[in-house]
Records
---
Amino acid sequence: MTRVMLIIAGCLLLSACNNPSTKSEEDRFVDQLLSKMSLEEKIGQMNQYASHWEMTGPAPKNSSAQKRLEEIKNGDVGSMLNVAGAKATYEAQKLAVENSRLGIPLLFAYDVIHGYKTMTPIPLAEACAWDPEISKLASQLAAREASAAGLHWTFAPMMDVGRDARWGRVMEGCGEDPYLTSVLSVARVKGFEGNDLSKENSIAACAKHFAAYAFAEAGREYNTVDIGTYSLHNITLPPFKAVADAGVSTFMNSFNIINGTPSTANPYLQRELLKGDWDFDGFVVSDWASIKEIVIHGAAEDLKHAAELSLKAGSDMDMESNAYLPYLKELVQEGKVDEALIDDAVRRILKLKYRLGLFNDPYKYSNEEREKEIVYSNESKEQTRKIARHSMVLLKNQDHLLPLSKNAKSIAVIGPLANDKNSPLGNWRAQAIKNSAVSLLEGIKNAVNPTTEIKFAKGCDLAVSGRNFLNELVFANADAKEMDKAVAAAQESDLVIMALGEDSFQSGEGRSQTDIRLKGAQMELYNKIRKLNKKIVVVLMNGRPLAIPEIAESADAILETWFAGSEAGNAIADVLFGDFNPSGKLSMSFPFNVGQCPIYYNHMNTGRPTSAGNVFWSHYTDAPNDALFPFGYGLSYTKFEYGKASTDKEVYKMDESVKLKVKVKNTGKFAGEEVVQVYIQDQAATYVRPTKELKAFNKQNYQVGEEKEITFTLDQSDLGYYSPEGEFLFEAGLYHIYVGTNSKDVQKISLKFTE
Ligand code: BGC
């Protein structure tokens, strides 16, 4: 029993502390503890530091590291990020628990975005599975490894709805659609948190970044956000509301301003909406140094002022601004902030520690044996291979070139990413071991018969330096000798598989681009190989949609594999050689060129959507309006035929639901999965609605020749929307329902709702 438990034990039964259903016990425990805490100790709980130093060794004298160690011992720190591993977390926990007056355990947080050591595909890829079970599985896998490494809390899921491929952080989210993002983020939260946070294999999740960070102007990282309240309520906020309703433990605010107010200092978002209307009982952590940045934005005089604004706005924990620890006490004493706000923040933080079972055993997650057994285990690798196969999207398959035969005589494997064991791990890779992914080349060699001759030539390099989390990438120039080798390998082979795309550190935080075509000498290499008139399968690896119209036009087959994680090469080979029939659907539109960004399927119609035979319509004179590959798009090795979709009525009363059905048949030669997608359009709304909005989907496996009737029910919550003031509206009038295999190829049904 920890010191803090001993203090409270007189009043409470120990067994009750672990039972999440006895909420009143939790409240009583937390209230009792709070009543024993000094103002300084409370403020300490609201302070989060990152670890940049060795917790177990002596810190350099008079260094900031030494100061921080003393602060941990003194109870001035409530949480740490970036301390990972059973041993390191144990040592750090000991400092807090054994030295501070009340022995309150630390909360260990980390960016476990798509895996801890075993990497699953990046979230943008995972979202292409359109499968909540897959998303849940991926987060369960991450939680199992992270919890075994002593962690309590992940800064995931990132659920910023992203429409602009220039913004590098689209790789971390679920793409451009609020509904898909909502469904999958809820699944991810469930995967991380399970049903009981005190279980040893679950960790707390964090919904981030609240809010509208992905709307950074022109896709430039950390840039100004100028989003109207109409888009805010209908596009950005719904996924956050969905995870708040699902009980996510924490939120993280965002770096950007909204309507001139930095999110960290935004009382409307954090207090009125999240903790008020949505009744969220968890806590809000600031983003890294975002309290400090309120001063830089120009919304506070100094750090003390920023601390005051943030606390009042509802930011409960200070990540690395060092603003709360030095200033909150003074602010209370000066009467500028009410201590009740501090009590509220601390109560929220202590509740999470209670729910995790940390007051019962602060070391429960720091178990080196469990860590050895679970982290990077064969079971994890098997699972990530499964998730990866489901995340891949077949973009083109001319004349059914894929799947390939494992008995092919000779295959050339070409491209800078073909034998790259690092890039498939993606960015935000937590504790992944550098160069540990199965490369495409390795995967192909594992899959084909020993008689198949594999010739590998990289053709060019992609990035020559900066291949890490911190630095700018420098791209390689063409190298004539390497190109020649690649041309020779292609010439001598029956078929070419080319791995092209991005370096893993090309997307992620701080990685905005104005050009989203293939970097370096990749197009030159592609064009050289293309001229040989060999069949070419392009395997894309990337963290954002790319502008690749020439490849879309001329390659025979294109498989989008994103950054597929630790087992990338094996999973890609599973798809290329037909052990798995691809079923992924794009979670984000691909543009023809960067000038179309932001491009998204759920746009408004405008007053001039079509040509009247002259230039005076909403279009570009040098590129189409449409996406190169639209949202929801993805092919299969088999063929699905849709019957005529129908609804149960044509006219509905306002309290009735629409029952929709459609028959889908696998008329091809392979068993496979299909995602049936349902979109709506409210044709006569008080506020103009998008031409299409995803409202439901259904993914099923179909045997060859199998037909299924797929049914959907759409009710008011699906058909309504938010006014610019955030009021939910469901209105009478004409609606169109669209059913199909992607956001473009759909059939339409019209119906009416009447008062
Ligand atoms: C990112 C967050 C992340 C935090 C901690 C920030 O720069 O915006 O998403 O969780 O760092 O690493």
Note: Residues 132-148 form the longest helix (17 residues).
---
Amino acid sequence: MASRKPIVAGNWKMNGSVELITTMAETLKNASNNNIDVLIFPPFPLLSKALEAGIVAGSQTVSHENAGAFTGEVDAKLVAELGCKYTLVGHSERRSIYGESNDDVAAKFEKAQQYNLIPILCVGESEEQREQGLTESVVSEQINAVINKLGVAALVNSVIAYEPVWAIGTGKTATPEQAQQVHKFIRDEIAALDVVVSQNIALLYGGSVNDQNSELLFAQADIDGGLIGGASLKPDAFVSICNSAQRNA
Ligand code: PGA
């Protein structure tokens, strides 16, 4: 992981408040995380507030459309104009609750990059898929939807977050070995197409990461940080997760 800068990203989902932005900004300012990138994905109404408070913030999704008559959707161009550098695409909740397909996610990925946002592509298998031995094929299909549409070079300005669906919000974290195995699989798959891209892309783990388990997860060779849900709503726990990434940087 030597050449890759670790990233710790907090996904607030539909949680948080103006007050939490202020507390988080203060807590992060007092933490010294010089060798890692720390990001927060708050709900849209809090994005400006987060950026003004000095937090590196991104959107939880973007539309695959350009500006137009799409009530309730969010334009990637506007997110970039606001000062965001990143967006999540294809979070499992977007896939399972809002029906986003691999093709939809690839289109969002493309739109994000068109406006110089770095997409964090979320991938991961369900419990049933894992039990059926389909983890690698599911993850590979999710990543290939992007590669087939845009080419492997599109991964240069992107991040991939492996988040097994069964570990999200359940308290059932993948073991460091389980997570490392899938991360290595992802890196090897990309390496088969382009070794340089595979060595430089940050691969984050997500799914019930907390301040107790982050250290061992981040110590794995192919895990370059984390996408943190629940624990990113607790500033002290989040900073302690950042510290474990910093120690493994
Ligand atoms: P969790 O969520 O940390 O609460 O499991 C992770 C995510 O959904 O990104």
Note: The chain has a mean pLDDT of 96.
---
Amino acid sequence: MTAPFRLFLSFLFVLDLGSTLAEAETGQAGWLRYARLDGATVQRMQRDVPRSIATFESAAPVQKAREELVSGLRGLADLDLKLTDQLPPDGAIVAGTLTRLRQASAGLLPTGTLPPDGFWLKTSTVNGARFLVIAGESERAVLYGTFALLRKVATGDSVAAIDEKDAPYAPIRWVNEWNNIDGSIERGYGGRSIFWEGGHIREDLGRVNEYGRLLASIGINGISINNVNANPRVLSPEFVPEVARVADVLRPWGVRVALAIDFGSPQSLGKLPTYDPLDPSVIAWWKARVDDLYKAIPDFGGCVLKADSEGRVGPSTYGRTHADAANVVARALAPHGGVIFYRGFVYDHHMDWNNPKNDRARAAYDNFHPLDGQFDANAIVQIKHGPIDFQVREPASPLFGALERTNQAIELQITQEYMGQARHSVFLPPMWKETLDFDMHVGPGGSSPVKALVAGKTFRRPLGGFVGVSNVGLNPNWYGNHLSQANLYGFGRLAWNPDLTSARIIDEWTRLTFGSDPGVVRTVTAIQLASWRTYENYTGPLGLQNLTDIVGNHYGVAVEASERNGWGQWHRADDKGVGMDRTVATGTGYIGQYAPAVAKSYESVATCPDDLLLFMHHVPYTHRLHSGKTVIQYLYDSHYEGAAAVEQFLHDWDSLNGRVDAERFDEIRTQLDYQVGQSIVWRDAVTRWFHRASSVADAKNRVDHYPGRLEAESATLNGYVVKDVTPWETASGDKAVECSAPSCIATFRFAGGAGRYDVTIRYFDVNTGAARFRVRVGDRTLAEWTAADRVPSRRLDGSSSSRHVVREVSLAPGDTILVEGTPDGAETAALDYVEIQPHVDRRH
Ligand code: GCV
């Protein structure tokens, strides 16, 4: 071998070794990347996995399973499987329905059955040959078994000798997509719809196919593809063939398609004089539309209905009940095997804030408990996990314990509406598990976790389960944040088995998504597991609910936005105390909706958990928590802890540089860096607001004291003008400066000692332009950037508050820092402050 050729070969070798890290990864494959395992694991898998795959069924899910095994094992373990429809004498992977496999060879599996959608993974020896059997109770269960086997391989589990049966906890494992037919998504943060565009189903359904694959891999078996704020047009005859195309793409993945419907459709679309659910013409209309759908989509899943809620029409127009409304559609669906999900999210959004007895949290129970037993067998009441609306912490909805003769499903929100809209990383399974594991103390035996109630186990209901509001979009990484994918994964895994721990789920997800480098696994799982508590700490602790812009974008901080309006997300903070009195004794009586054992613990401040204290009680700021801390000091401390924790996430992530592919490393770094900045806005806004309201000083003297901070309104301004910011707490010193000229300069004088500093420029980046900024010290340009982010705000507020940090700047006493802003469109290059902090070297 010549020297240059040897060099060439070693170059190739280096390239190959590095390929898993160097390759750009967009996140589109989610946790199904099938990236090559390490050498030792590859060798082990090559030893333990047979070299052919035998299938005997032409059904699409079984064929998909075969394709997945071929590509998965090739990618993970460099195995090239031979395809066969016979049992080869030298062994094989065998995948199929249990019935068909038994026909193929009695020796593959011992006797035994499988529950609905269950699978069996088993190594067997027949005539001296090794078989790795994947048997499914149904065709789609063959896929579930296949993905379970691939998960084992991908996480390095041994497959040398397996005998495992697994089955889902509940029959309903659905996602809802709040997609509008114009292609926009209500509360979607990952781009436009993968289903719809311009009033029609998209031509290219490639992403739908990829999504179906992701859903099948976590056991999801149904999907509604349009917004629950439904456009009646989805039921029009010309839409049926379009919806059928989506069903065709998802059917091979075992996912049934459904539609959200508008209750007024018989009138608005059908041109009937009424939509009264008891009117014979309306009954006939629903039947005809549903029959028509089933002609084109024989396995159509059913419908989701939001009625009498947030402006949607409903049965109240005619004095009919929610059961009447659900049943008229249920009866049209029943002959075809379809189901209707009737949403329990019904409340009055015009309630009088001045009436202390009014309480939105009561609504679901008050509306649906009296109707228990009146819903048809194929109707399911779909209940949000808490009584309000996906807040950062809520108790379990009391309605879960109040339906004994009605099917129910829990609605969890995967999309991060109130959870930082995918700009903040928040891993939600720990929150969901608190609800799922919560004992409602109802039913036979008196012990009933929410998961058992919704799955129909407690009251022996025929249907029930889990619905996740997913809202994926065309963004290559689906949600706009790589780390947010873990929420979809976690939802599916919990819907399959709610007894899984969050730690197990995130460990799996991390290994599948980033590989099994121990440092990566340790760091990513630690960030994810701490992220919900962290987010809660800086956005709404102690059961306050999210202190966000309730009447606007549900994103940035706005402490009073929830008050003095009819929406009912009230916290009732005033100058003496804070919290909603929901007690039976003196409050709204909400607590009385729980079974006595639960109600008793919530009713008294002595036993109410601190985490829900302000959800259940109104207390003075000086009230002492179980920890001994006062409420007000807890509010201060938790916000500082939350912001500090996010900063630590960023440093921890930085330690993974070079151990995660560059593209995802950079994108996650940018996201976490942004989150650090936002957590500081939240921290300062909430603590300042409560400081002003309560007049109680922070024992640690942090609130309203910001060393190194120079307010823009106190700088020397050239062209900039001072502006009051609303809400006041979202700008430091309550004010900002806006540029009212073609370009403006704010000059800040540095009064500290000579040294190296990090300089933070806090500015506002609204979504109506792309202003330019330049920072100089004397004639040294430190940084230049364009404020081109698209945060959901056109105003100067907590949502648009952004920061740019220039690190390791040498400054001397008397230096002047000039920030030059050039407005663009309606964006005024607004500034809040400059903060100068000694630089700390955090390199490890
Ligand atoms: C689809 C909240 C959200 C709405 C959503 C509604 C619902 O109010 O902000 O966007 O509407 O819940 O779940 O119906």
Note: The CA atoms of residues 349 and 418 lie 18 Å apart.
---
Amino acid sequence: MLSGTATPASEITRKVGDFGTQEFVAKRGESGATASLKDAFRDRFYVGTAINRAITTGAGGLRRSPEQVAKDIAQVKEQFNQVVAENEMKWALIHPRAGANGYDFASADAFVNFGLSNNMYLVGHTLVWHAQTPQWVFAGTNPPPAGVTNSTARAFANTNTFGTNRFGRGGFGFGPYTGPRASREELLERMRDHIHTVVGRYKGKIKVWDVVNEALADGGTNVLRKSLWLEIIGPDFIAKAFQYAHEADPEAILRYNDYSLENPAKRHKLITLIRSLQEQKVPVHAIGSQAHLNVSTGYEEMDQALTEMATLGLPIHITELDVNSAQGGQRTTGADISSNATTTQGGLVSDADRKLAEAYAGLFRAFIKHEKSVKVVTFWGPNDANSWRANGKPLLFDGNNQPKPAFAAVIAEAKKANAVK
Ligand code: XIL
């Protein structure tokens, strides 16, 4: 049934009586897994993964030999029916320079070709974000507002820079931007050109776009995070981004994506933002909930989060799922993205595998309960070795592509749910 086709999960008709006896996998795959995630959840939601350049091109990566990458590729094909590029479509990579020759499409094209040739549902990530965006985007001739000095601009280190952490590697070497700025009109025009060009290039191929990423403020009472997008354009930068994306591909599902939505205060900001966009008839079609979690987040918290987010009436996509099995290191509301990648060092709990399995079982129970809303569940990487939080061993497969107890726990939840249907 449906093997190898990218039939949208929403269009799959559930056959009563088809469950309980269903075998998820006939053969033992490359990973040694005896089941596949995509088959186990086939009638509920897509199960996807972020993939990087090494996987889409088959070349060895920073931390993976060509032999390991070959296994990663086999594992991705065996387990997942949806993919998203981990980095290759971010502004800094796909559009590093201003001007006519400013775009570098090669890696993004490789991602799209990989997904299409494997019949996978393609997600594009991400069009407008405060991070991994080159400084030229914000540069112009307007003096920065009074009070913006090097010292205050360092406050932007969380928002518009890539610093000396993992973001600093791989040619993202930008510092805080304190120079003269573009006008609102200039920045809107750059945003429009970027969105029209990128979305237009992959029109009909990429089905879902993360249009705006992480615009919500973590602490405090402000709904929106301080960023150059907000400061230069104003709060309607979000509505404009969705409008441009909708113009470029009216069929694409346009997503607002953010993290820590398990945190009630941040989730309420999300609801405020999305309601306001809906009142303005902005074409926002889905909520992306990153779900960078740790083992303390289980069924109840996820159930509560999904229940509240579902009141918006939009599909919910779990967009970047990983569960840190180290103590600490969850992406808290205070932690910025870059520190998050490093706080996973050390502190691995002795029974990490068991705790991880329990956490994942609870999360998938919640996804299954909310299957009317949850349409996509994407892991942020195929296995622990290529995870951005590798030290936290946060995924279902280990660095040798072998399934961990958490994998079996997730499959067991699917079988349980399918048996009672
Ligand atoms: C991360 C990637 O996984 C890393 O390789 C990169 O160095 C930094 O970005 N939220 C997002 C993703 O929306 O784009 C981030 O991905 C993780 C947090």
Note: Residues 167 and 338 are 7 Å apart (CA to CA).
